[in-house]
Hints:
Helices cover 54% and strands 6% of the residues. By secondary structure, the protein is mostly helical. It has one domain (2-115): Rossmann fold. The longest helix is centred in the first third of the chain and has 14 residues, at 8-21. It is flat and about 45 Å long. Its EC number is 2.8.2.-. One of its GO terms (molecular function) is sulfotransferase activity. Belongs to the sulfotransferase 1 family.
Amino acid sequence: MIYVARNAKDVAVSYYYFHQMAKMHPEPGTWEEFLDKFVAGKVSFGSWYDHVKGWWEKRNDYHILYLFYEDMKEDLKGEIQKLLKFLEKDLSEETVNKILYHSSFNVMKQNPNANYTTLTKEEMDHSVSPFMRK
Length: 134
């Protein structure tokens, strides 16, 4: 298993914008209202804290690679190398460079398979907020 955790503040901000544009979720209300719900775990998928903590604890009982989104942003190649080691894969430098290119934020932001632009405005309204903001 591979688990990627992200800073709670960044998750809350991202999730707030996601709730505004993804029409399958209820309106988030004001930032303050949403943040209160997020901290209390009263948002879709429940408590961020319980989820992250639960997977952190499972790493002691299962073969889990636990990565951090912020580390991926800072050193994507290093994190890909960790992933390859975990998967016991040895790839050529050319292939690793292709992975780096296709998993970069700017390329993924333009990729309809990653940015959800293939969904209708009734499902995800990208005029409210893009799925991949920054």
